[in-house]
Amino acid sequence: MRHAFHDQLDGIFDDLAGICRKVESAVHLATQALLTGRVDIAEQVISGDAEIDRDRERVEDTALSVLSLQAPVAGDLRTVVSALRMVSELERMGDLSVHVAKIARLRTPNIAVPEQAHSTIARMAEVAEDMVRRTARIIEDRDVDQAAELQRDDVEMDQLRRASFTELLGPSWTAGVEAAVDVALLGRYYERIADHAVTVAKRVVFVVTGESPETLGA
Amino acid sequence: MRHAFHDQLDGIFDDLAGICRKVESAVHLATQALLTGRVDIAEQVISGDAEIDRDRERVEDTALSVLSLQAPVAGDLRTVVSALRMVSELERMGDLSVHVAKIARLRTPNIAVPEQAHSTIARMAEVAEDMVRRTARIIEDRDVDQAAELQRDDVEMDQLRRASFTELLGPSWTAGVEAAVDVALLGRYYERIADHAVTVAKRVVFVVTGESPETLGA
Fold this sequence. Notes:
CATH topology of chain A: Methane Monooxygenase Hydroxylase, Chain G, domain 1
Radius of gyration of chain A: 19 Å
CATH superfamily of chain A: Phosphate transport system protein phou homolog 2, domain 2
Structural class of chain A: mainly alpha
Oligomer: homodimer
């Protein structure tokens, strides 16, 4: 009975890692659509989000059924409740990828990101995707050390966001208001994806160590 | 025992309503800071957010302790798990008010919102604040009908967001890139506050009716 129960908990974490991999792919494809103006790829991200939503529902159903039927305590309770939160974060990350893809689609056949913002946005996208990829591994391996390292990357993301604002509000910005608004929102979306990744990683630390979320600032 | 337990659940919902009232106040003050350029009010919102964060921790601790000690099932389990989610949403709404206040502070003694965007942003702020106020009542009264009505207001918010984009991307926009970026982000923040309010209200419906969250699109 307890053995089957822990298999169930492991199954929930496998599901979470799988969803995180799908989010990684969504971030990757949304960025590709954004930087190439390929509307077919943007559409793929937008329609693909329904699958992430269905996965979330499945994890929620399983977690609630575990809570109800097994009445877990202590570390097991912490695991199930954390899983419920992590799946919400992951779903939001999928939604944010859709927002990126929608900006790409809105400007097609043009490219939403002007040349002068290209390198900063491309780097933000790269950092975000890399953080999501590592978050999937952190979930799989319950890797507390990697989770701590992830927060250092989030510092780079904050720096990139500031650099992006400096670019688009500086005197050398010639791409106009529409592009500036697109770039500001894209920066916000990638930053939020990174924030959610950090929160998910913190939840893994909480599951493993029992360290209280308030000290994690989650 | 069961009586004391249901008092505990009611206590959690009273706490949630109380947090929602604080968020309502944060939205109100952040908007006031934004539209007047008063930095002292902006600071009040920014420093006041710590109280909302502490309230969230208290609700989480109580909910986890209820899950662990009482092992609730069926409707009671649904209530506790929903409370955990609602408190996360409410905390995010507080964070978004802080984002609004920070834009106000950044531009002080000037006013971040230029004249030509004033009425749309002021209306978005009004709709957001009103939705948060009604969400507090929906939590207090477990009012399923009001929750449904709240979603109709969210439609106005979406329309305002589109109107705002039309304004700031149109040929008559003379306020420049910086103001356009501020207005686009402010629009995003108020829209997200409204989205979270709708999600919280949907959770109340779920608690009362047991209607599954997937059909709620939460």
